[in-house]
Amino acid sequence: MAKDTVTVIDNRTGKEIELPIHTATQGPDVVDIGSFFRESGYFTYDPGFLSTASCHSTLTYLDGQQGMLMYRGYPIEQLAERSTFLEVASLMLYGNLPDREELADFRKIIVHHSMLNEALKGFFRGFYHDAHPMAIMVGVVGSLSAFYHDSSDITNPEHREIAAHRMIAKMPTIAAASYKHSIGEPQVYPDNRLSYTGNLLKMMFSVPCEEYEVDPVAEKALDLIFILHADHEQNASTSTVRLAGSSGANPFACIASGIAALWGPAHGGANEAVLNMLIEIGDVQNVPKYLERAKDRNDPFRLMGFGHRVYKNYDPRARIIRKMCHEVLARLGDNNDPLFELALKLEEIALKDDYFIQRKLYPNVDFYSGLIYRALGIPSNMFTVMFAIARTVGWVSQWMEMIGEKNQRIGRPRQLYVGPVKRDYIPINQR
Ligand code: CMC
Predict the structure, then answer these.
(1) pLDDT in tens, 380-404
(2) 266 lines ligand 1 (CB under 6 A)
(3) Is residue 253 a contact partner of residue 342, using CB atoms and an 8 Å limit?
(4) What is the 8-class DSSP label of residue 431?
(5) Is 362 in the pocket of ligand 1 (CB under 6 A)?
(6) Bridge-partner residues for 63, per DSSP?
C-alpha cells in the first residue's frame, strides 16, 4: 500500500478507497478527496469548513494551538516591529521582501493610483447621510468595475496586477470619502507626499480651510494595525473573494463581496461590536453579569473580541495590539481611558473563568484594536472599514494567487439534501 495515502473503508459495502495525502511545508498535511465522490458515491460533509482546506496557498500560515502567524514565512512579530504596511503589501503580492528600489517603485505606483474618478463622487452623494460607511464601501468598491475596463481582463497578468494596485491605492480614499460623507464634510484629495496611513489620516481628519499635520504616533500606530490585519489565511471574507473570483468575476466585484463578508459581527464587524459592548457593560462591577450572559446558551450575547475558529491560544495579533494599546494611549495622553481599564479587567476575569478556559477562548485581534482606533479619534462605525483597507492586501494577493493557477476551476460545493422527495404539483383549487 502506498505510504502517503489514507484508506477509507465503507462499512456498508466493504469497499476500500485510497486517497492521496499532500504534504504541507508546515502544519497539517491534507487528504485529497477530489476523487472520493467518483469512487464512493458519497459527498463529504463539513459545514463551516472545520476540517476542510479549500485551496493550497503560499501566503499566510497560522498555527492556532501555538498562537503563531506568518506572512510568506515571516513571523508577524518581526513584521510588526520592523516592517511597514506597504512593504508587507509588496511582500504579500510578490512573495519576497522588496529591496530599497523595489519598495520605492511599489510606493510610487500605489501613490499614483490613489485618486478616484471624479464621477465616483456622485455615488457618495447618492447615499443617505447616516448610511453606515461599510454599506458605502460595498457599493462604491463594487462600482469601480464600471470605471476600469482597461484592467478587467483577468486572463492578463498585467491587468490583474494593475487592478490589485488600484484597489490597494484607492481603498483609503474611498474609506475617507465614506467618512466625510457621513459627517457632511467635503472630500479631501490624497496627498502623495504622505505615507499610506498618514494620507488616510489627512483625508479623514483635515478640512480644506485649515492646515493639517499628521500625528506621527497615530500614523505609526495605524500602520502597525494595518500590518496585523493584512491577511489571515482562508477566513470568511477571503474565502468569499476566492469563491467569487473562481467564477471569473472582475476583481473589484470580488473585493466588494469580501467587504460584505467582513462586515458581519462574527468576523471584521467584531471590532465595532467590542466597543459597543464595553460601553454597554460600562463598569467593572457589571462584568460578572455580562460573563454570565455570555455563558448562557439561551442568551444570544457573546463576549465580542473573544474566541477564534483557529486560535486555541492567545491570538498573536491581540498580544501585539494589547501592548500597543498601552503605548499609544500613554503617548496620546489618554492613558486613563476607562474603557481600556474595563477591557483589561474583563480579559483578566474571563481568562480565569472555567467556561473560557475549557473552550480555549482568548482575546482575538478585535478585542483591543477598537480602543486604539478610538484613541486616534476614529469613530466606531469606521472600525471595520479600517480592517477592510488593510485586508484588501490579503484579498487581492489571494485572488492573484488563485487566478494565476494553471488548473483553476470554479468553486462549487455540494450539499446534503434533506428537503422533500419528488412530489407532483397540485392545482391550487385542489390544495
Ligand atoms: N463568547 C461566549 N462563548 C463563546 C464565544 C464568545 N465570544 N466564542 C465561542 N464561544 C463558545 C460557543 O458558544 C461554543 O460553546 P459550546 O461548545 O458550549 O457550544 C464554543 O465556545 C465554541 O464556539 P463556536 O461558536 O463553535 O466557535 P466558532 O469557531 O464557530 O466561532 C467565532 C468562532 C470567532 C465566530 C466565535 O468565537 C465568536 O462569535 N466570537 C465573538 C465574535 C468575534 O470576536 N469575532 C472576531 C473573530 S477574529 C477576527 C476576524 O475573524 O475577523
Answers:
(1) 999 999 999 999 999 999 999 999 9
(2) yes
(3) no
(4) -
(5) no
(6) 68
